[in-house]
Amino acid sequence: MAQPTPGAAPAAPQNGMGTAALVMGILQFFCLGTVGSVLAIVFGKIGMNKADQGLANNRGAAKAGFVLGIVGLALTAVGIVIAIIAVAVGAANQ
Prior knowledge:
Structural class: mainly alpha
Number of domains: 1
Oligomer: single chain
Strand content: under 5%
Number of helices: 2
Radius of gyration: 21 Å
């Protein structure tokens, strides 16, 4: 009597990119700045693609990191515009 061979075990989910995106998205506000924003966007996009392919199961974390990265870049752009305006106003008042 032949023993049935067990099927291949399902591969572990590849959740690293989604988790990294979320961590970078949070840390950008405390210590990483624009570099953290860019990394959060890149890792988030990769993580969402892996989730769409069925390789990962944390699409929500990847998307949250992606969105936080975009928010961080937008806030950086607003800060730069405000700084330019402040310098221009200061120079005009001298």
